[in-house]
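agent> Task received from the user: take the single chain below, predict its 3D structure, and emit structure tokens. No templates, no multimer pairing.
agent> Plan: (1) validate residues, (2) run structure prediction, (3) serialize to tokens, (4) report one or two observations.
agent> Step 1 OK, no nonstandard residues flagged.
tool_call: predict_structure(input=
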Amino acid sequence: MHPVAMVDYYMEGKKTETWDKVTNSRIALLHPKIRQIAVNFINEVEKEFGIQLRVTTGLRTIEEQNRLYEQGRTTSGNIVTWVKGGYSYHNYGLAIDVIEMKNNNVNWDESVLKKISPVGIRNGFSWGGDWEKQKDYPHFEITFGYKASELLKKHNEGELDNEGYIIFN
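)
tool_result: status=success, residues=169
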């Protein structure tokens, strides 16, 4: 970030961490282009609504995605995802799942996620609650205009930075 932009940025009172060390550790693994956006989202929700969000899932490997996809299909458990490895924005560190933490307990009330969704959208995320089929209320993603199949192609062709994240043009 340019030094002048940094001064403006910090003068606005933006924080580089959230209230939650678990969330901070998960955000640290996201694609570098969305880390601060995710922090801003979490912090703005807390400031505007007094709701403390935890990132439950951020970056997920393709192998982890495939294991989750098999759950409820070929392995025991409930179906928790609709896409195979390589076709989730989680696989590229471009998606987060969030949930409210209240008194150190998880609050699964979907109305909370509906309430905070405009803050995520305002910060540049697409929201899984807006999907036509198979709504995913905890899910927020930034695609940078790429389809997951295009990201998989970039991944397979080695268009990665020195940390292993997709390089965007």
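agent> Step 4: summary for the user.
Confidence is low (pLDDT under 50) at residues 1-11.
agent> Done.
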